[in-house]
Amino acid sequence: MTDLPTSAEATSVVLSAQGTEVSVEPGRGCRLASLRVGGTELLRQGPRYGSFVMAPWCGRTAQGRFRNGGEMFQLPLNGGSSRPEAGAGPHALHGTVRDAVWRQTPGGTDTKASFTYDLTDPWPWEGRVTQVVELAEDGGSLTLKLAVETFDVSFPAQAGWHPWFLRNLGQGGEDVRLDFSPEWQEERGEDHIPTGKRIAPQPGPWDDCFGMPGGVDATLTWPSELSLRITSRAEYVVVYDEPAEAVCVEPQSGPPNGLNSHPRQVTPLDPLELTTTWSWQRL
């Protein structure tokens, strides 16, 4: 069980440049608690929201079970379907680090900070997750970098981000519009686990994973207010736009249940590394 953060651990780390401010909470899973551009908040507020890290897996791991080599491992079950009528789950959801207490590493600046979390029970192997948060000097973009490394034994892993962007910025404007061009959509079973079949992208609303083999490239536009572009070399993105308050666009290294369907081995010589950049402009 993760220890509750002390008052010092719960302190926000604030990065700022040219009217843009990013608040990181290392005591709450190293999530971005706030992203304000010219005083306008872009992320849904609250302890579950902002933008959190998913590692060492993303989304749902079916029934919390996966293999490494010939051995089966069981993760705690903490999430089923977002639609109770679907009869899904329970599954192991979003990794182990989103509610953990991270540590800030020395050497930060007004625009850059680095944080680490050492993997422990219930993850079966020792390792480390690192997140670097860097705001551009002109305040026009934010780059996030994730790394998952092992201290000894190789293991499968995934990494990604789960940002909750506000559907409406609350300034009298229109709701956000999402523009992206995936090559395929992962067919989702009744249990919300991908079936392994790739289908043509379907109309929303979505709680679905899409393939973008050239890298994630998606733009959120609040008409006449602001546009925000999300890019990453990651080839998968989950879009969750069912909530009335927010739209989630989640770059990640593999699809849900990827510990089983797309295992990416992390070795002492080959950590898993992932980067996303968010850039914005006023309209």
From TrEMBL:
MF terms in GO: carbohydrate binding; isomerase activity
GO-annotated biological processes: carbohydrate metabolic process
Superkingdom field: Bacteria
Family annotation (Pfam families): Aldose_epim
SUPFAM superfamilies per the UniProt record, alphabetical: Galactose mutarotase-like
Protein name according to UniProt: Spermidine synthase/aldose 1-epimerase
Annotated source species: Streptomyces qinglanensis
